[in-house]
Amino acid sequence: MTTTEQHPPRAAGRGALAGLVSAALLLATATVVAALVGRGSDPFLAVGDMVVRLSPKALTRFAIDTFGSYDKLVLFVGIGVVLAVVAALAGAVATRRPAAGVVVPVLLVLAAAAAVLLGPGAGVLDLLPLLVGTLVGATAFVLLVGLARRGTRTATSTPDGSTPDGSGRAGSSPDGSASEGSFVATHGRPRASRRLFLGAAGGTAAAAAAMAALGRVVGTTADDAAASRAGLGLPPAGNTVPAVPAGAEVVEGATFRTANADFYRVDTALTVPREAADTWVVRVHGLVDRELELTWDRLTRTFDVVDREITMVCVSNPVGGTLAGNAVWRGVRLADVLAEAGVDPTADMVLSTSVDGWTASTPLAALVDSDDAMLAFGMNGEPLPFEHGFPVRMVVPGLYGYVSATKWVTDLEVTRFADDEAYWTPRGYAAEAPVKTASRIEVPESFAQLPAGTVVVAGTAWHPGLGVDAVEVRVDGGDWQPAQLGEVPGPTTWRQWRYEWAAEPGQHRLEVRATDADGEVQTEERAEIAPDGSTGWHSVVVTVA
Ligand SMILES: Nc1nc2c(c(=O)[nH]1)N[C@H]1C(S)=C(S)[C@@H](COP(=O)(O)O)O[C@H]1N2
Ligand SMILES: [Mo]
Prior knowledge:
Keywords: Membrane, Transmembrane, Transmembrane helix
Organism: Aquipuribacter hungaricus
Region (Disordered): 153-187
Protein name: Molybdopterin-dependent oxidoreductase
Radius of gyration: 30 Å
InterPro entries: Ig_E-set (IPR014756), OxRdtase_Mopterin-bd_dom (IPR000572), OxRdtase_Mopterin-bd_sf (IPR036374)
Bound molecules: the ligand Nc1nc2c(c(=O)[nH]1)N[C@H]1C(S)=C(S)[C@@H](COP(=O)(O)O)O[C@H]1N2, molybdenum atom
């Protein structure tokens, strides 16, 4: 029998490992149960959702501006890092003071429970994943911390009175607190106890990995939505949107229609809702004569199905930015749906809600007076991709997405701006937000080095309510020169433009501005994105040699 000096840091290190693998097991177990109970009950996702909802608007803005479409990934990695640090610290502390070690984890579990319960449409059953996960994770934690403490303490102080090598000495300290600070010598078999601890920790890690894998399998098998989307025939449209006009594409390398896979994505959903079309219902209610419950069949068979080519723009698009896309949408007119419901004359807004509880406020007039505003279910000839709102979303030309383009829409409430507000309204955005005229230079890129001679300057402009009637370019603050305009199928899309510039050596600044179909010239005045969209002329600086 040897007596070895062991130092607290070693116990703390084992405790930290115990905390990490137990937390992993907790989360993985919860994911498996959540795959069975329902996606909204995954505590990790629920906490993520809560963080998004509680974040000050400046932080959300910063996240979208800085990380773009990676904002959600960054959020999850961030939460993961925080959890890992807390779990490791909890484990390390617990090797000395078990009661103190579990304080923060217990608080976190309670916070997660609150986050789950406060999620959209949550019920008590949704606590099951967290509950089961916590039981499993806590059991692993208690056992592992026990083992971690053993290898570094005097034998008589082991919590359960036995030694890892099974020689069964009597313990004096059931909760370990009496022997705090007595990290002096271990009992006889430090190697064996270390091996036992590492084996147990490794086993726990393996169990967590197995659970995570199981969660994936269960999640995919339970994915009726993918089967639903794959098996869904799109009903034919009563009209045909003309092919992209031959003269529409005048910018090298830019397609007039955006492929679904390239279409920008902006939403607050941490996991993309995946629901089957055959169980989908859109409820129409509020200030109406008749409430409607629109199932997939009712939606696609009661109303005229139409195709519309519409450019959608995000309010978060900075001057010169790329948060805009153009697609052929298939669906039914919202005007028809609202006529069927019969709208009260005192109403002035439709509050649309998604399956995950996000809302948009759309002026009623933009829907009932429009031949283009739609409840869409097709995008460029396919059912909507899950990321873009499967099975049903709204699309309204001329209004920014956050006030009109509700994805995964389940509820349309006819109401008044005075009575209701949507998700972004209390977060510093305008309740009503028509798309502002914008134009951008796509070629040449900023800071390009170009040879002297003819240089093609080209890009895209939009006012997807009225359409664009003119685009002008100027060089170094000189006179505005008209650009050549690409053709458009109608007023609801963006428009490409191009200008041939006789470039002379030196550094030059190119600017662009557009004019809408009402003759209104795009303003030079710079405006921030909040509250209702950026303005200002886009410019690039190039060097001609
Ligand atoms: N359910 C839901 N729908 C939503 C959003 C959202 O956060 N949740 N974001 C809106 C915003 S801000 C925009 S710009 C458009 C973007 O649609 P896309 O992701 O299909 O391009 O969706 C709108 N619909
Ligand atoms: Mo947006």
